[in-house]
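Worked problem 6 (solution included).
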Amino acid sequence: MAELSLVQTAEIPFGRLEDFDLVTTSTGPLLVGTHPDGVCTWDPLRDRWAVHRLDSPPWPPGYGSESPAALSALGALVVDGRIVVGGGSKYQGFAQWDLDSGAVRGFADYHYFSVDTVGTLELPGRSLFLTSPANEAVAVWDAADSGTGHPAKEHNVRYDRGTAPGVLDGRPVLVAYDGDYGCNGVWDLDVGLPFVKFDDELETEDGEERLTSFALAHVGGRPLVVAAGAFGSLVPVDIDRGEWGEPFAGSEPLEEESDIMVAVGAADGPPIAVTCTCDPYPAPGFTSTLRAWDLERGHALGSPVAAHEGGGALGVQFTELNGRPVAVTVGRRDASVRVWALDG
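Solution. The predicted structure is:
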């Protein structure tokens, strides 16, 4: 049976990261992470770290620091062949930078000052950043538009690390929870309305299970939303009817609730998902648990794997390394990056 295995580990020479993203360049994948002077990068093919100082945007007095940009949330995109970093923090508004030069490409008006979460979304001819203060409305920024200081769109749907940007029938969408509608759903980011809605909790044999994150995949040519439950379940959603399917087979219920992040990617065989238990305020002994899932057949793959002892992981993302799909995790306290592949 296929199993997750650790294929590469890198120690972070600058200490722990607060956030990270993965971007694919012409020479391979690149990890972009936070750093006190701007951002850092890690090239896994060459196992090479670098620091990129980012210029401070010309904020109005009292709305930002004159020192180099210090980010706690970021995303990265390739725009016209160059890597663009978008990010901010609780004390610094959203801005975009050219990674290589550190120059500011654009920055938000002071009305959009606080940033808690940053995501990215790529469509044909469009590259988007998604930002939000703490679990509040999502702002959509066009990475090619560097001049207005205002987002291209704003939608009153909660956006956090557990939500899932994606593309559905050529439309930019977000799988997320919305308090106004009191439900989970798939939102069209161009019009700001949900076109699929489903319950915000999962009914199981043991009662209700809180949902902590979503992912959007394509299986057999059809879109599939999967949701991770706080006790370890992974559940598909019928997008056409907005109804939950049966939890995937092989899950092993956790003893305690946990925030669980889920990432999806394509393997040589069926598309797979990897779930990762995360705790934003981990106890010293907390260890993340990784689990791989076959999205086509609807069952777990192999056994759970322990990762990032003594604090757990920030999250999990997919990329391709040497033609092989891999999952990447970053430790919350252990200052390491780990690369995982599905063997067998």
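Discussion: The CA atoms of residues 97 and 104 lie 4 Å apart.
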